[in-house]
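LAB NOTEBOOK - FOLDING QUEUE
OPERATOR: T.R.
BATCH SIZE: 2
PURPOSE: Compare the predicted structure-token outputs for two unrelated chains run back to back under identical settings.
PRIORITY: normal
REVIEWER: second-year student, initials M.K.

ITEM 1
FIELD SEQUENCE / FIELD STRUCTURE:
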Amino acid sequence: MDVDLTPKLPKNVFGGDGGSYQAWCPDDLGMLKRGNIGAAKLGLQKNGLALPRYSDSAKVAYVLQGNGVAGVVLPEKDEKVIGIRKGDAIALPFGAVTWWYNKEDTELIVLFLGDTSKGHKAGSFTDFYLTGTNGIFTGFSSEFVSRAWDVDETTVKALVGSQSGKGIVKLDGSIKLPEPKKEDRDRLVYNCEEAPLDVDIKNGGRVVVLNTKNLPLVAEIGLGADLVKLDGGAMCSPGFSCDSALQVTYIVSGSGRVQVVGVDGKRVLETTVKAGQLFIVPRFFVVSKICDPDGMSWFSIITTPDPVFTHLAGRTSVWKALSPAVLEASFKVSSEVEKKFRGTRTSDEIFFPPSK
């Protein structure tokens, strides 16, 4: 498979006083195009407003930093105004109109990962803005705007020409946006930082999985996700997605080493990953990570709403399910070697604490 899997940082797309929008380019990270995956990051400064838009792709939004407010209008539904905070995962199906606002001093940073298979460009999100210099009003003639919205010429000029910003603007303190409603978070948001742990291994790591059970809306977007926190020096068992899914991983914090092994036992990636980088593991390729002493965390989407993984080491290793004779013959080793191999990691699950 002749595709560069090297982890990449995003590039600036546009921005200003209100904030910035960055995206990973499929020309730099070829697996985005091959896997039909889009990845982008929104950063909003205080009083920054990301103008209302909809996208050509279903996606998961994940709040990396800060607190803010988001407006979400699902097709044929009323607007939901939600307070968002670090750790929130939000499922955004096709046709969802969203806006994002930060009224705090700390920058609000939101990661977007999604499926571009039905989009205009493989590996990239295309957003359609309702307002601003690139909004839909600027494309229609005055006659069409006037007749569609039943407004006079003066109002048409105000709608089309008043907003000079593109994508992101900075509001002054006099504008008051809707306050979030606690009940609007229901069935739309799942906080991965506060949720019950699906895996918790002492000195190893912890996992929270986002799936159809805790956020049913992910079934509609066709994506699952997880937040993994690996303790200092710990290892994540070699494993692969056994249901033909891609793993798209964003390093949230820390650093560590990663190896990926593909077809014919070829090591296709061996590198150090750091906070802010994104990398993609192809279907059925085996990946393993060892984090540095300060630990490492990552947020991933998997291109199926209820992913299933097979691990090659630990108590649940597929090796332990195979009969001893098959292992002896396959490895061409003695029964003593096979017993030693099978007898290790009998209690460890998918994370292995550092050796003492």
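ITEM 2
FIELD SEQUENCE / FIELD STRUCTURE:
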Amino acid sequence: MAKKILMSVNMRCQKCRSEALKIGGQTTGVTFVGLEGEEKDQVVVIGEGIDAAGLVLRLRKKVGFAVLISVTDVDTSE
């Protein structure tokens, strides 16, 4: 079952946004990475077998302050 991980990340510039997407995309098992929110300050990662806490730690180290908002199951059988 795939998981949808929603994280709020403090991104000050376009370079921070692209770095956050790059980190999300390099994670093993990821099928989708995107930005959400009114100010595009939330990173959405969908995939199987993703370590949500580890992903947040990598974002904190490379981009800035990050908070895990939610982890939900996603039905991908279409």
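REVIEWER COMMENT (ITEM 2): The CA atoms of residues 5 and 51 lie 10 Å apart.
FOLLOW-UP: none requested
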